Amino acid sequence: MKWNDISSTFASTTGLGRIFQFALVTLFCLNVGLSLKLLGKDAAPRTIVVPAHLTESFWVDDEQVSPEYLTQMGQFLVSLWVNVSPNSAEFQTDEFLRYVNPTYQGVIKERIKNYIASLKKNQQSNVFYPYQAIPDQKNSRLILRGTQKIFIGKEAVKSEEVNYLLQFRYNAGKITLTGFCQTENEDLYAAKNPKICTQ
Prior knowledge:
Blueprint: H1 3-14, H2 16-40, E1 47-49, E2 58-60, H3 67-82, H4 89-97, H5 105-122, E3 124-136, E4 141-152, E5 155-171, E6 174-182, H6 194-197
Antiparallel strand pairs: 1-2, 3-4, 4-5, 5-6
Helix pairs in contact: 4-5
């Protein structure tokens, strides 16, 4: 008697052939169902990030970042740009430039050069005390309101309320700055075009 004959006789008398067929069909249906579920799943996973040196957790996904991320990134960048002295300006503005979108680095570099020259010429230091952040998550923008004080040497010569508008671009998991400027109280988002904002 051949092995195939023994195998088929054994399968037909014990019913194992039908069990294996049922198991194969069941596994095939499960695979098809899981594949369809994965295809229909949202392709933008959300990652929760708890930063080491920042104050709040925030999330990012494939298309946008949370308002908390915009706020903390904006506070960091404004601090680098505004809270400067003639001695720290070059270091801080170099650090600031690392976060600028490559498309806008030429414009920002020219601003930085003029900014540093002005600080050194006047022996000017600036301090910014933010008191309100207005994130615009949909358009990746942030308004940071606060009090800015200007010192010449050690003497405070000016104190004023200012609003900084920061425009970001988020792409492939990286956020970069495309616009940075002061804007008026009357229309905080007046400088809607990042090209205008960088000048």
